[in-house]
Design a protein that fits this description.
- The chain is mostly helical.
- The protein has one domain.
- 68% of the residues lie in helices and 0% in strands.
- Helix 2 packs across helix 5 and helix 3 runs parallel beside helix 5.
- The protein starts with a helix and ends in a 6-residue tail after the last helix.
Length: 94
């Protein structure tokens, strides 16, 4: 995750962090990033076209989509660990 968020790229670490967290993303990029994170099967060419029309290159979009995907995966992983800990009684002062 460190390389995704802080490594060299066509987007700034701040932009990648916003995509990773799916937060504070300006439109029309927000529509694409939010779909990638929460409804990936609904991403369309129009979402990419709108982001490109706003001035983002394909390289930039690739980095932001990867950041959003990894961010959502990390959130789901953490939620799964928390649910497992709750179900097994681990994490209650142990």
């Amino acid at each position: 995750m460190d390389r995704i968020l802080k490594g060299e790229g066509r987007t700034s670490p701040e932009q990648r962090a916003r995509a990773f967290n799916n937060a504070d993303i300006p439109p029309p990029l927000h529509a694409l990033i939010d779909k990638v994170a929460t409804r990936p099967t609904q991403v369309t060419d129009a979402d990419f076209d709108a982001a490109k029309a706003a001035g983002f290159s394909e390289d930039q979009l690739f980095e932001l989509v990867i950041s959003a995907s990894v961010g959502q995966s990390a959130r789901l992983y953490e939620a799964g660990l928390a649910a497992l800990a709750e179900a097994t009684g681990n994490g209650k002062g142990e």
